[in-house]
Amino acid sequence: MNDTYNVKIAGFGGQGVMMVGQLLAYAATELDLYALWYPSYGPETRGGTANCSVIVSKKQINSPVFSKATHLIAFNQPSLTKFLNNVKNDGLILYNSSLINQPSPLENIQMVGVPANEIALELGNIQVANMVIMGAYIALTQIFSVEIIEKMLKKFLGEKKAHLFGINQQAIQKGIDFVHNKGDIHA
Amino acid sequence: MAKVLMKGNEAIALAAIKGGCDAFFGYPITPQNEVPEYLAKYMNEHGKVFVQAESEVAAINMVYGAAGAGARVLTSSSSPGIALKQEGITYLAGSQLPCVICSVMRGGPGLGSIQPSQGDYNQATRGGGNGDYHVIVFAPETIQETIDTMKESFDIADYYRNPVMILVDGLIGQMMESVDFDRPVKQRFLPPKDWAANGTKNHPGRRNVINSLYLEPKELEDHNLRLAKKYALVMQNETRYEMINMEDPDYVIVAYGTMSRVARSAIEILEQAKLKVGIIRPISLWPFPKQAFDQIGENCKGILVTEMSLGQMLQDVQISNRGRHPIAFYGRSGGVVPEPEEIVSAVQNFEKWRVE
């Protein structure tokens, strides 16, 4: 992996934006890397806009805020519009194409759309759309192995929500499969 | 213990338990709510006291009572809540009662916002309470440093019999970082609390009274002089700061808490632009590390103070600089956290932001 990843994850409150960010930060901690997660949301949570920033680094993390993200994960149209121009050269924009029209291409930035809502609905629960995105994200970036993400997912869900592990795990796998089957489209 | 990922507020709570906190009294306010939330769950498990008071004023006076009985006490709040506690804080200082106060700053004045800010520098270091008193104020920059400071703070409070404040901005409270709870901290020899009002079993016939009322002028002056002597000792022993990249820099940035981390990133960018910039990072805000400014080299073209406020620590820097170097100020407020590029630009356009 690179020395440092700045990841911006944004969407509506309730779409599981914070969870995706926290799983990345937990995975980094598990691997003894430096991790920082920082949420930003309006006064209302569900339905409002929410975003979080995650920094994963081999080095001690200085500034908790960054102007340019290595990777942007956008769950809805306003989030993409808001952060579109804050992605680094050679960066990645991963977006939920169920809710976002295909954006015009940007030079030196890889853009990948994943119909996360449709895939999640096929699995029977729209709430796992975030894990579809998570699967696509780790498949595209190779930042963490699926094993470590699943391990963190188990820990995150805890005993109370253990029965949801299966469907979330399937969602991650669907996201990975989607990226692999897409072949050269995102190259 | 291996590293764990933890939210700043929860880390503050767990570090307090590890630091030997016996009792917590507080009243909810964003962005510090996870501190009492965590303690409500775990203080009982550890056989300790947790009380959600009916108000901030009640909470700080419960702190006074429990500290007077010899317990190690914590309270936690955010800007408007700390404002309400000021009366209690001067009574604690006046009665020489140890306690730890955690202040997680949000935007102000008034109700302000719930976003991060450093607008309470003056509130923390000058206080809104009456009389000649000081609170020992530490401003850590990472969650790790917050944990280490919290673990040590109960000892420092007990040692000097004085309130200690841990001052962080809402960002440190709300973010998560990978941290280690088992880093060793300085141990102190603490005399027994033979002043505590906890019964006469150990000293039959002699009552201990906790009080800050001295009606005889000479008596009160003696008390003030005793406090002053103690504060001089605190200045001598507890002044803390970090000098970063300070070998003959072109410019010096002064920043604390989250802003010092933003400054660390800024000086890396400035180095690529062939500008050598150092950082003076005050860790104790009272006592303020004046002596750090005597070590700035002759070739320094100026000092940039940066805060998430419109200039509060700036005044302490001006006092410490004693007119030796030009000073510029760059601040954001209202909950905006400046990005490193803004600090880079402020150093490069020093004259634009110059105030002295």
Structural commentary:
The complex is a heterodimer of chains A (187) and B (356). Chain A has helices spanning 17-30, 77-83, 116-123, 129-141, 146-157, 165-182; strands at residues 4-12, 34-41, 49-57, 69-74, 87-96, 110-114. Chain A has 187 residues and is of the alpha/beta class. Chain A has a single domain (4-186), classed as Pyruvate-ferredoxin Oxidoreductase, domain 3 (3-Layer(aba) Sandwich). In chain A, helix 3 (116-123) packs across helix 4 (129-141) and helix 5 runs antiparallel to helix 6 (165-182). The model of chain A has no long low-confidence stretch (mean pLDDT 92). By secondary structure, chain B is α/β, with parallel strands linked by helices. Helices cover 38% and strands 19% of the residues of chain B. Chain B has 11 helices and 14 strands. Chain B has helices spanning 8-18, 34-45, 56-68, 79-94, 121-125, 143-160, 170-174, 217-238, 258-272, 313-321, 340-348, and strands at 4-7, 23-26, 49-52, 73-78, 99-105, 136-138, 163-169, 176-179, 241-244, 251-254, 277-282, 284-286, 302-307, 327-331. In chain B, helix 1 runs parallel beside helix 2. The interface between A and B is medium-sized, with 21 and 23 residues.
Q: What is this entry, summarized?
A:
The complex is a heterodimer of chains A (187) and B (356). Chain A is an alpha/beta fold and 187 residues long.
Note the quaternary state here: heterodimer
Instruction: Strand order, main sheet of chain B: write it out.
Output: 3-2-4-5-7-6-12
Most extensive contact: A-B, 21 and 23 residues
Tally of discrete structural domains of chain A: 1
Please give the alpha-carbon distance between the first and last residues of chain A: 19 Å
- What's the story with the biggest beta sheet of chain A? 6 strands, mixed
CATH architecture level-2 label of chain A: 3-Layer(aba) Sandwich
Question: How do the SSEs of chain B run, as a string of H and E?
Answer: EHEHEHEHEHEHEHEHEEHEEEHEH
Overall residue-averaged pLDDT value of chain B: 97
Q: Tell me the total number of β-strands of chain B.
A: 14
CATH superfamily of chain A: Pyruvate-ferredoxin oxidoreductase, PFOR, domain III
- Taking the alpha carbons of the first and last residues of chain B, their distance comes to 49 Å
What is the total domain count of chain B?
Answer: 2
